[in-house]
Amino acid sequence: MSVTFIFGLFLAITFFSAGIAIGGTFFSFRKKDNPPAASPSDSGLQPAELPGPARAAEPEPNLSAPAAAPPPHPDLNSLARLYRHGPSGRLLVDFNGQMRAIGQDLSAEQHTALSLLMLDISDWLGAPPPTPADLPPAAPPAEPVQPPASSTPAAAGPQTPTLKPPSTNPVEALRAMNAQRAQSVGQAPAPTTLAGRINVVLQELLEESELRREKIEIRDALSGGVLFVVSGQSYEFIDQVPPGPARDLIQTAIKEWELRNER
């Protein structure tokens, strides 16, 4: 073997060993700079759970008035709507968008509308007419006064009844006047319908009001409802009567009739 071949082999082995040593050193330093990531099991951490959709709370019952549906016919007027609240069982009445529960205060117009509605329903269901005990008692007839005894015989003539002083109570005075009128013309038969009975009260109040010259009455409509007649103009509902003394008088008559029937 020549010296040149041996020297070349020695250099090759030397460079190969040096390359292995340098490569090992480089990889050891790189491993220290980038440590391996710890797994969840090694660190003791549990993966976070994603929150699910929140459970919707049960809605509270809505006691506001629902949207009013259009009437099935243009000639029909909506008076009131009745609802029953399921959880509480309370009866609710919708007056054109204003909801009222049983026991709550009503306005004058709502009270009148509900009273007239109950009158029609009572007639529909065949409610019995009021008994004589429910009617106001008539004033007793005035007792005739005997003329003083005289020595001279007086000519026979009609006896003049004693005039009692007027009562300060307008209701009692009105009853006495009606009793005297019934004695002169005869007692008219009592009306059998609710509209007729309320009209009797209305005419009593009309005689003592400033509207006595006006024609205001409550009639039975041919359709089975009620008609309010004011100065020759007929109205099917109390809300259609123009606001004023005539409308107030009708509402007062309805309340007076209710008070008489509560006795």
Secondary structure elements and pairings:
Elements: H1 3-33, H2 40-43, E1 81-84, E2 91-95, E3 98-101, H3 108-125, H4 170-185, H5 194-207, E4 216-220, E5 226-230, E6 233-235, H6 245-261
Antiparallel strand pairs: 1-2, 2-3, 4-5, 5-6
Helix pairs in contact: 5-6
Verbal overview:
A hairpin with a 5-residue loop joins strand 4 and strand 5. The protein starts with a helix and ends with a helix. Helix 5 packs across helix 6. It is of the alpha+beta class and 263 residues long. It has a domain of 92 residues. It is 38% helix and 10% strand. The strands form 2 sheets. It has a 3-stranded antiparallel beta sheet, with no helix packed on it. Strands 4-5-6 form a 3-stranded antiparallel beta sheet. It is built from 6 helices and 6 strands.
Level of helix content? 25-40%
Distance between the termini: 149 Å
Radius of gyration: 50 Å
Number of helices: 6
Adjacency order of strands in the biggest sheet: 1-2-3
Counted beta strands: 6
Strand content: 5-15%
General form: rod-shaped
- The topology string of helices and strands comes to HHEEEHHHEEEH
Give the low-pLDDT segments.
56-61, 129-139
Assembly state: single chain
Mean pLDDT: 69
Helix-strand category? alpha+beta
Question: Main β-sheet: number of strands, strand sense, barrel status?
Answer: 3 strands, antiparallel
